[in-house]
Amino acid sequence: MRKNIVAGNWKMNLGFDDAEDLIDQINEELENFKSNAEVIICPPSPYLELTSDMAEEGYFSCGAQNVAQWNNGAYTGEVSAQMLDSIGVEYCIVGHSERRKYFNETSEEIAQKIDRLMENDIIPIFCCGEALEQREAGKHFEVVENQIKESLFHLSNEQIENIVIAYEPVWAIGTGKTATSDQAQEMHAHIRSLLEKKYSKAIAEEISILYGGSCNSKNAKELFANKDVDGGLIGGASLKKEDFIAIIKSF
Question: Which pTM was predicted?
Answer without folding.
Answer: 0.96
